Structure formats: C-alpha cells, structure tokens
Amino acid sequence: MTISPPSDFASTAEQPRWQRYFGFSTDHKVIGLQYLVCGFLFYFIGGALAGALRTELLTPISDFMPREVYNELLTLHGTVMIFLWIVPVVNGAFGNYLIPFYVGARDMAYPRLNAVAFWMIPPAGVLLISSYFLGGASQSGWTAYPPLSLNTAATGQVIWILSVLLLGGSSIFGAINFVGTILKMRRPGLQMMQLPMYCWAMLGTSILVLLSTPVLAGTLVLLSFDIVAHTGFFNPAMGGNAVVYQHLFWFYSHPAVYIMVLPAFGLVSEILPVHARKPLFGYTTMVYSIMAIVFLGLIVWAHHMFTSGTPPWMRLFFTIATSFIAVPTGIKFFNWLATLWGGSISLNSAVMFSCGFIVNFVFGGITGIALAQVPFDIHVHDTYFVVGHFHYIVYGGTVFVIFASIYHWYPKVMGRLLNEPLGQLHFWLTFIGLNLCFAPQHWLGLNGMPRRVAEYDPQFQFINQISSVGALLMAVSTLPFLINVIWSAYRGTVAGDNPWNALTPEWLTSSPPPEENWHGEAPLVHEPYGYGLKSPVSS
Amino acid sequence: MTTSLPGPASGQNATEHSAAESTEHHPDHRLFGLATFLVADGMTFAGFFAAYLTFRAVNPLPEGAIYELELLLPSINTVLLLVSSFTFHRAGSALKRDDRQLCRRWLLITATLGLLFLAAQLKEYFSLPFGLTDNLYGSTFYAITGFHGLHVTLGSLMILIIWWQSREGGRVSSQNRFPLEATELYWHFVDGIWVVLYGILYLL
C-alpha cells in the first residue's frame, strides 16, 4: 500500500513565502527553519538570563536581584538553553532540513507528526516563561531535585514540569520521524553505509531520545503527583526515596548530553570534508563510534551522583563505563584531525567555528574524564568546575557547531553567502568570550566556589568579574552575527546552487531548493565525501 | 568515504525500483512509526518498574502500614486481556478476508473484554486496604496500574471507534486496514505490559 503526502496541508505552496513559516506547514524545510528561528528567539531569552546572572555575580553580595529571583532566573536559563534552544535546533532544525535530502526523499516519513512536534515547542516555551510572572518560576534548577523541588513554590514547579513534558513529547515525536525517515525512506539503491554521517548521528540521537526521554516524562509525572496529590514517591519525610528520582532523572539527562552533542558531531563531519576538499577520514569507525557512544551513554548516568551515597561497586562501575566513552569520542576527534590533515582548507567562518568546536570540545572532554574519577568528582561536585566543564561542551561544542552550520548552509537556504569579515569577527568574539567566561570557572570550582548561589566568598570576586567580561563579549558577539544574517539576505553575494562544490545531496539542487527538494529524480550519491574521485554521483 | 563501492547489484536494484516508484508515493510506514512510539511508551513503564523495584529493595514499609494484594481479580484480568489479544487477532484476520460482519463481532467482543478488565480493576481499587497517599507502595501501585489502566481505556475507546468505522460504507475496510492494524499492535503491547506488571507487582 502506498500513501500520498497529506493533501489537506500540501497546498501551502500557494501561499506567499513568508506566511508559510507562521502556519502548520508540513514541508520539512519550512519546519526546519521554524525550529531554527524559534530556537534563536529562546537563545536570546536564555542569553539575557545568563547576562542577568553574570551581572549579579560581579559582586560577592546579592545586590542586583533578590536571591529567590536569582534562583528562578538560573532555573529558567538552564531549562530554556537545553530544552528550547540546543535540543530543538541541533536536532529539529538541521535534522528536518537535511535528513530528507540525505536519504533522497521528498519529505520526512510522517510530515504531519513533524509539524505537530514543532508546534508543541512555542506553547511550552511561553508556558515556561510565563511561570515567572505567575507567582515565581521554579527555583530548583533544571534538575528539579526533590526535596528542593517539593519545598519551593509549587505553581512554578508544576508549570515547569508541564512545559518539560510538552518539550519531551515534541522530542519523542521528532525522534520517531527521524528513525522512520532514515531507516525506511532511503532512495532505492542507497545503502546505510553510504549515508552522510549526520544521518548516523541523528539515528543514534533518536535512539537515545526514544529510550531515555519517556523515563524522564514518567518521573516528572510522579514528581508532579508528589507536589499536587501529596504522594511521597521522592519525599523522604513520607517514606519516599529522593535518590531514586536522581537515578531516573539522570537516566534521561546524561543521554541528553549526547542528544545535544551527537548531532553536532554529525554536522561537523559534514562541514569539514567539504572545506578541506578531502574525504571524511574513517567513515566506518565514525559510524561504530556513534553507536558505541549511544550504548555507553545509556549506562553511565550515576556518575552525576557520586556524592548521593552511591555504594562503592556503583562508583567503580560508573567511573569505568564513563572513562570508556573517551575511546569512541577520541576516535571521532582524531578522524576530524585526519580529515583536515593535508587538505586544502579554506579558513572561512564555517571552518573556523568547526575548529573552535574541536578545541573547546577536547578541553571540555578532558575535564569530563577528570570529573568521572570519583576522588576528584567528590572534591569539585556542585562547584563552578562542573559549570565550566559543561559550558565548554554545550556552548564551546554544540553552539559553535550550530554557528558553523549556519555559515555552511545559509547559502543553500537563502541563495546568498554570509559576509566573511563579519563572520570572522563573530567567531573571534565568541571564541575569546567563551574562554574568558568559562575557563576561569574551573579555577573557581577547584578553589571551592559552589554553583547555583547568588553570593560568594569575596576572595573570588576578581575571577568572577573576568568571567562576567567574557559573558559580555559573548553577548556582543551576537551583534555581528545578527547584522550579517539580515544584511546578507538582501545584499550578500549570490551563491549559486553549490558555492562550496560540495557532494552531499542537498547541494545537488537549486538554492533555495524547490518544494519537493529536486526538480526531477533524487540524485543517487554513493560517495558523499568522494572529493578527488571521478564520479561520486551515479545518476 | 572509505567503504567499498556498491557492486553492480545495487545499481540494478535502483533501476528496478525507479520504474515502480512514483515520485509522489512511498510505502506506508505508519505501523513502523507506531512501533517506534511503543518502544518509547514501553520505556515509561520500564522507568516505573525500575522505581518500584528500587523502592522494594531499599525502602522498608513504614511501621503499621498495610500493603497487601489479592491475587484472584488480577489473575482473572490477566486471562481477560490475553483472550482479548486473541479475539482482536481474529478480528484482523476476518477483515483481511473481507468478512466485515465477523470482524465487527470479534471487535465488539474485544472491547467488552477490555471494559470488563477496567471494571475488575476498579473493583480491586475499591476493595484494597490502602489508598493513593497512604504509603510509598500504595502510591507506586496506583501510579503504575493507573497508567496501564489509562492505556486500556484509550485502547477500548479506539476499538469501539474502529468498530463503528468498519460498518458498511465506513473508512475501515479490507482495502484500508491501517486503523485496525494500528489499534491491534497497540492492544498487544498493552497486554504484554500487563503480563510484566502482573509479574512484578502481584507475583514478586
């Protein structure tokens, strides 16, 4: 049996271009851009929140805002950045735009489900932000650990739970679509081992989403029962067990790190070969590394809980399992270096951000391995060392890749190139800002400054001020980017269909691509990284 | 890419397909999508079971708290659901043979079994010596069986809907079996979860 694209929504092509982006479009390219723009709006909100936090931390006392407000903004910052910016953009935006091209399909496997998944995000975001104005947002951080989450204002916490449940649902629907599209919608003749690396990254990510997000959803429902119905699942005062919450929470939230960073691995693997004019080094090992990370990512969660009374055998197991992740990650790292090695590299903004990613990610990875070791972890648990570590991963890693991808794919979407000098300025401001902001935090943590607190010991003031200056630089760095994106849309150099002479399928159509991706048959690309080969495209 | 180039076999494959493959149509992957969703749904239950088992292992029942389950009703319920999986399968086979009358009869029997299950579940709820907020095990028991009961409720409603839709002139027919097949897959999943739940909550 065959099915047609949903006819009731397919007529959006007749609407003017801009209107489609505000409606229930089922076109994967429209949905991808909806994810991207929506994510950026929340990125600015999350960034403004971070700015407020760093302003408060300029002085050791809480003078810029009350301590409760600091807690609320801290929770909102974490939740917005993870659930409304990074996860939707690095999965939803690039995944929806690119995956159908890469498998040679005209759309995702379930276009209507795709649109539903996107349209769950704006309401969830508005709901989350609204809690601040409805008697105070949640104050328990993005982890919402009980008993803290049971003792703080209930309204904000329940709204937070509802919002995260919606976003989790959206993420699961998206993952169903990616698995269906990658496994079932491949163009005839296209083998799995011929897919561009981003497909493998998204397949791995989607498996993680499908296996771990439902556990978080169930846990948060139980937590909401504790708040609303006065059950005692996680409330020690009522015979419950708060550590079980931590286990269930991290069973999702450690894989969530890979949900945020695996797609970034995939995107970097697309960008580097094009601009180095060399095949991606070690394709097969990349694929196996991704799958190894998926498997290991599911069995390391308790390394977040070394100070939660975990028994020795558990500490031993989770330390070893976590350290093992360095192996597949290291393989990927050396593969990227080998891809660049001896290539004729164009040092454009996309490559600069990709290389920035490699540098930052290695640094964040090494502190990650350090944190996996129990004796060290106990020393720096819940200090700024951890804050520095994970911002190197999510900002220095994933956000850098998001920017690299925008410089790389903007010409495909808009038909014009982004301005290079502005791009370089954006890169250096971001790179210096990031390192200035987060590198000193490792020192702060090693010297005992706890995270998530509005006040601190006066001896830490100078280092905190350096960190805040870095944050200011990062805020400033978005200006050249914004000017660039808007200016280039009207005045940028016309790019043509394939400005990078790339071989992956999305470049083998017009820029911007037509409604159903190709004017004729989808091309069959056997060698997406076959730079230097005679005929990588066979039809 | 470093893997070997595809042999001539896959090239032939491409030309074979491209003739049959219309640009506007692709095979129906909706059941596959539902199966993917059910994996995720199953993980929600897995999380609940893991929580329950951990509570059992480390949290003693408070002094004077009661947590006792009778086996008779849930055992009957297990049989009801297992039989309903079988009757649903018969309904599906009947629709494949285009025997709508028979299909609708089996569907009605399946829905009745589902509703009987829910009635028995409610009866058990009202006869138990503990409530939702009495102790940790009471809370966990009601959360897990309640979540499963919600699945049975939705399933029974879906069965009644496809029963209505499979009437003469309705949208479910031997040509359009997807609604029935999707509900059937879901129903088997809900039954399977119950068997695990019965083992963990009642027998263990």
CATH architecture of chain B: Up-down Bundle
User: What does the radius of gyration of chain B come to?
Assistant: 22 Å
Low-confidence stretches of chain A: 5-12
Name the helix and strand elements of chain A from N-terminus to C-terminus, one letter apiece.
EHHHHHHHHHHHHHHHHHH
**CATH third-level topology of chain B:** Four Helix Bundle (Hemerythrin (Met), subunit A)
What do the pLDDT scores of chain A average to? 93
Any guess at the CATH architecture of chain A? Up-down Bundle
| CATH H level, superfamily name of chain B | Cytochrome c oxidase, subunit III, four-helix bundle
Oligomer designation: heterodimer
Reported for the largest beta sheet of chain B, the result is: none
Helix/strand/pairing category of chain A: mainly alpha
Tell me what the structure shows.
The complex is a heterodimer of chains A (539) and B (204). In chain A, helix 9 (197-228) runs antiparallel to helix 10 (242-276) and helix 14 runs parallel beside helix 17 (420-446). Chain A has one domain (35-507): Cytochrome C Oxidase, Chain A (Up-down Bundle), CATH 1.20.210. With 539 residues, chain A is an all-alpha fold. Chain A is globular. The longest helix of chain A is centred in the N-terminal third of the chain and has 37 residues, at 67-103. Chain A has helices at residues 7-10, 17-20, 28-56, 67-103, 111-119, 121-133, 148-151, 154-184, 197-228, 242-276, 283-297, 312-324, 326-340, 349-372, 374-380, 384-414, 420-446, 461-491; one strand spanning 2-3. Chain A has 18 helices and one strand. Chain A starts with a strand and ends in a 48-residue tail after the last helix. The model of chain A is unreliable at 5-12 (pLDDT under 50). With 204 residues, chain B is mostly helical. Chain B has one domain: Four Helix Bundle (Hemerythrin (Met), subunit A) (Up-down Bundle), CATH 1.20.120.80. Chain B is 74% helix and 1% strand. Chain B is elongated, with a radius of gyration of 22 Å. Chain B starts with 7 loop residues before the first helix and ends with a helix. Classes of the chains: A mainly alpha (539), B mainly alpha (204). Chains A and B meet through strand 1, helix 8, helix 9 and helix 10 of A and helix 1, strand 1, helix 2 and helix 5 of B.
